[in-house]
Design a protein that fits this description.
The chain is of the alpha+beta class. The strands form seven sheets. The protein has an eight-stranded mixed β-sheet with strand order 5-4-8-2-1-11-14-13. Strands 16-17-18-20-19 form a five-stranded mixed β-sheet, with helices on one face. Strands 9-10-15-12 form a four-stranded antiparallel β-sheet, with no helix packed on it. Bound molecules: zinc ion. Zinc ion binds near residues 1, 2, 354, 358 and 377.
């Protein structure tokens, strides 16, 4: 997902002021966007905010007993989308293995969509709806170890909702339908029935989308075929060969033009509107260097059989697996801004670099609960800096990373409560990446660092993990106890502060960490740049000699994300 705050560039701000003189705000919104402004209140039962979680959030966020009793194997989402009636209908075939004997499972579908029927073979199943959850009851016990398949038929008009629209029936400037999905956060069950959580993924998936003959659907996975249904509709069939997050599953339907390329034997497929085709051909060329950079650090592109796709959409962009969506105005930076404000962001297209980075962190390695989403966003933001390092060197990467400092708020911890459909604060991006850069300085050996990064990704690829897995891996590989360091940055509000007390008479400095974690220890470089000295600071005062005065004595705060308090 993109961090908030990229929109409203200086240029559009100027346009905003100019247009304000001529039209009302509603007109302005219509003029800026080819599609209606998303409604933010379509699902009032959903909070995702602060305070007590709602029943909806608990049912959605918890890995309850009727989710934990089964393991997803396969979905076949087979739907028809009518752009005129703004109507969707069809079924999801859900194949799963029971992990224990039981008579009930939990699926999810927003309560504004109809359940037409749920079948086990030809037997209709009873079900109960509870906010967004659908509890499906079986007439006989399902047995542990056996595989079952049900057909979940549904229909209705999905409501546009959430930050990127959720499910949007829109139009391009020429008036052609432009229909797209982007539902991370709000959840995939706003438009199709599934087991809507992060811990369990299907191992593969088929996506079949029937749409009017003159339109193109681009979904996830490998394009298999299109079939003229003889009634003015054509069905597009896509096959996902890998595990996939529910929220990554997408349709992108429009008057798309297609062009393609290859990186070695990896197929690259690009989709843009005809009027933007030339701009897309120029801008999307950045995809190759991006994939090369990430392959250099982490290994092969994770979804090779599905290929890599980049698809134009009207919102900023989203990491839809193997079908990354793009709405960054065919310009470098983030929505025409220098995103980290230090002159480096304008060298590349933020959306291509960031959203595609999620193929490694977010799509291949996935957090098992949205509480630990820094595993997606902190890491992918760090990947941006790796791209800069690969292309322009370490110094520019450090400059780019440290540009993120001004966006860090330190108002609440990055990791939020589990099991309640939580949404971590934006610090998960900026503080998350500055923390990972701090880890590199702690390891203090780039050859080991590159191997650690590569091996970490390879160890956990295609898995759903929690922060504890990350910490255990780094502890084991480095032989250090990094748990208090991870905890301080991820589970507390404040970053470590290095307290320094100078004694000019005796030419000494005393130092210690001021932190929340009792056993916190972290080396840090101090003294003078170009001749840094590493001190092993703890939470206890230690004293060392120094010839430097209080003003001369520096701390390498571009290598370690820490505060410094001098007395
Ligand atoms: Zn992201």
């Amino acid at each position: 997902m993109t961090p908030r705050g990229g929109s409203r560039s200086l240029r559009s701000g100027t346009v905003f002021l100019l247009l304000m003189a001529f039209m009302g705000f509603a007109d302005l919104a219509a003029a800026q966007s080819p599609t209606p402004t998303p409604s933010l209140s379509a699902t009032p039962q959903r909070s995702r905010g602060h305070g007590e979680p709602t029943r909806f959030d608990i049912l959605r966020g918890a890995y309850g007993p009727y989710r934990a009793n089964n393991d997803l194997l396969f979905y076949h989402l087979d739907i028809r989308i009518d752009p005129e009636k703004k109507f969707i209908s069809g079924k999801n075939t859900i194949r799963f293995k029971m992990l224990k004997d039981d008579t009930r499972i939990q699926l999810d579908l927003i309560d504004t969509l109809n359940i037409d029927k749920i079948l086990l073979g030809t037997v209709p199943l009873k079900y109960e709806r509870d906010t967004g959850a659908v509890f499906v009851n079986f007439p006989e016990t399902l047995h542990a170890g056996r595989v079952y398949s049900i057909d979940f038929y549904y229909s209705g008009s999905p409501v546009q909702t959430g930050r990127f629209g959720g499910f949007t029936f829109g139009h391009d400037k020429e008036g052609h339908p432009w229909i797209y999905t982007a539902c991370e956060g709000i959840g995939a069950s706003i438009w199709w029935p599934n087991k809507d959580q992060w811990r369990d993924e299907v191992e593969s998936m088929q996506i079949s989308v029937a749409i009017p003959n003159d339109l193109v659907d681009v979904s996830n996975g490998k394009f298999m075929s299109k079939t003229d249904l003889g009634d003015g509709y054509t069905r597009w069939d896509w096959l996902v060969h890998y595990p996939i997050n529910n929220y990554d599953v997408s349709v992108n339907i429009g008057n798309y033009q297609h062009f393609s390329d290859k990186l070695g034997d990896l197929p690259l497929d690009f989709y843009a509107l005809p009027e933007d085709l030339d701009k897309a051909k120029k801008q999307f060329a950045q995809a190759k260097g991006m994939i090369e950079a990430y392959q250099h650090y982490f290994g092969e592109y994770p979804f090779k059989k599905d290929g890599y796709k980049l698809i134009q959409v009207p919102y900023s962009g989203m990491e839809h697996q193997s079908a990354v969506t793009y709405g960054n105005k065919f310009a470098n930076g983030y929505l025409e801004r220098d995103w980290t404000g230090v002159g480096i962001s304008p060298r590349f297209d933020f959306i291509i670099i960031h959203e595609s980075g999620h193929e490694w962190f977010g799509n291949s390695i996935t957090a098992a609960d949205s509480s630990d989403m820094w595993i997606h966003e902190g890491w992918t933001t760090y990947l941006e800096s790796l791209y800069v390092e690969y292309m322009y060197g370490h110094e520019d990467a450090l400059k780019y990373l440290n540009g993120y400092k001004s966006k860090v708020k330190n108002q609440e911890p990055i990791i939020t409560a589990r099991g309640v459909n939580g949404e971590p604060p934006q610090d998960q991006y900026f503080k998350g990446t500055l923390f990972i850069n701090t880890l590199r300085s702690i390891v203090n050996d780039d050859r080991r660092w590159w191997k650690l990064l590569h091996d970490f990704y390879q160890h956990f690829k295609y898995q759903n993990i929690m922060t504890e897995d990350v910490v255990a891996y780094f502890n084991q590989q480095t032989g250090m106890n990094l748990t208090p360091v991870f905890n301080q940055y991820l589970r507390h509000t404040a970053i470590p502060a290095l307290e320094l007390k100078f004694d000019s008479d005796h030419k000494t400095v005393s130092y210690r960490w001021k932190v929340d974690e009792a056993d916190f220890k972290m080396p840090v470089r101090v003294g003078k740049k170009d001749s840094w000295q590493i001190i092993q600071a703890t939470t206890d005062w230690q004293t060392m000699p120094t010839s430097l005065s209080k003003d001369e004595f520096e701390v390498a705060t571009d290598l370690y994300f820490v505060d410094v308090v001098k007395e």
